[in-house]
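Write out this protein's structure.
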Amino acid sequence: MFVEMGGSAVIEHNHITHIRDNPFSGCQNGLAVLIGRQSMMQTGSGTVKNNKIDDFQKGGVVVDNTNSSADIENNLVQGVGPTILIAANGIQVSRGATAQVKNNDVSGNVYTPGTVTSTGILLFQSGATDIENDRLHANDTAIYAFSSDSGTTVNNNGAVGSTFDGITVDTSSGVGIHNNQSLSNDQGIGV
């Protein structure tokens, strides 16, 4: 599903599955829900709520590009589990996009070579984004904020059983991290 050309969508109560190559591969495609895309000069907005999203290749929900935004709430996002083929991300907000990411259950994003990290929630050069009350388990890194806006908050999340960090803040300043739980991760919070 692709929201583009400044469009808007409510994506609710769906089972979005098997969005991948057959056979499963390392190609950087297979995005179950895509809102905006910088490389195509596209923006979009949307509400992604109460969905089950699984068996995707590269990403479960991706919000990308300045002026793209989304409310991502109450979703079950399940990666394929440990794989040597691709570093996948459950939810990604990137390249100036903004989002409210709340009350999601995100798991199974693990890249077994360990040379790069799969993430439950990835903020990559994102605009101000709120990550709140999410449950993240069995990912390489539960929440990874790289070069994120100083208005970003990471509050009241649970990060359990990550291969690496529960929460990583990298090349970012002023990100607020409050009242999170980190359990059985290689490292609780990495800055």
